[in-house]
Design brief:
Blueprint (H helix, E strand, L loop, with lengths): L5 E6 L4 E6 L10 H15 L6 E6 L17 H24 L4 E5 L2 E3 L1 H8 L2 E5 L3 E3 L13 H9 L1 H10 L2 E3 H7 L4 E3 L1 H16 L3 H14 L4 H15 L3 H12 L9
Parallel strand pairs: 2-3, 3-4, 4-6, 5-7, 6-9
Antiparallel strand pairs: 1-2, 7-8
Helix pairs in contact: 1-2, 2-9, 3-4, 4-5
């Protein structure tokens, strides 16, 4: 159904499941209802047999423009409730996807920012259209990455480059993201669908159980602390909601002006 906040589809013949973030009018920015829809979709997928590959994508012009900042306005208590409700759904969905055998592919066009960047990096492979743009974005509202962003950034590109994205607010093109090791491959618009289909077909026809075991081994090699790290991220984000810089960052974002951070 096109009115669902996360649409799902499963090709029974190939085993390819597609989850589409579906708030195109908001560039798929995640709010509480979408977060809960995402968790429900992943829980349903987890219980289905024959899934060989999971594709995450976004409807319309973007993969995901991050969290819905408008829901974070108000008092620190109001912001905290909204953020907690989002992360209490998204974080379990991430852990469920990472526990499955089926490889996860993020198909990215347009912007992947904030939570959108985190969810793209959560995937095993990231296939981007040439117009894709990747940015941390949390620095713009005086917050820290969530949805596993600080975990996946550090493990995929290292602490130094992760700091460059956060502290300098850099936006990476698809070509830059490929050089940095942030994505798997990219292609111009007229070649993108073929590239994506080829990678999906190759992945979905592979040894699914071995792929799942491999992911779990690599997560273990990285410390096997993803669940604890997601909790630490959430706690750090909630702490930031009590700062003056966060209030200024959210107000500036909604007013479409440059924030005036004071370091407090």
């Amino acid at each position: 159904m096109t009115d669902q906040l996360v649409t799902t589809g499963l090709d029974a013949e190939t085993g390819v499941a597609t989850l589409t973030f579906n708030r195109p009018e908001a560039l798929n920015a995640v709010n509480v209802p979408m977060a809960e829809a995402f968790l429900a979709a992943v829980q349903k997928l987890k219980n289905q047999t024959g899934v060989r590959c999971v594709v995450l994508t976004g409807a319309g012009r973007a993969f995901m423009a991050g969290g819905d900042v408008s829901s974070m306005a108000g008092t620190p208590e109001q912001a905290g409730r909204s953020i907690s409700a989002i992360l209490n759904a998204v974080n379990p969905a991430i852990l469920l996807l990472r526990s499955m055998d089926a490889p996860v592919i993020a198909a990215v066009k347009g912007v992947a920012a904030g939570a959108g960047l985190s969810l793209a990096l959560m995937a095993d492979l990231v296939v981007a259209r040439e117009d894709a743009r990747f940015l941390v974005a949390y620095n713009g509202i005086g917050a820290v990455p969530d949805c596993g962003g600080s975990w996946f950034l550090t493990h995929k590109i290292g602490a130094g480059r992760a700091a460059e994205l956060m502290l300098l607010g850099r936006t990476l093109s698809a070509a830059d993201a490929k050089v940095w090791g942030l994505i798997t491959e990219f292609a111009p618009q007229d070649q993108y669908e073929k590239l994506l289909a080829d990678i999906i077909t190759r992945t979905a026809s592979g040894p699914t159980r071995a792929f799942g075991a491999f992911r779990r081994l690599t997560d273990r090699a990285n410390g096997n602390q993803l669940a604890a790290h997601l909790e630490a991220e959430q706690a750090a984000f909630l702490e930031m909601t009590r700062t003056a810089d966060f209030a200024e960052g959210v107000a500036a974002f909604l007013a479409k002006r440059t924030p005036d951070f004071r370091g407090r």
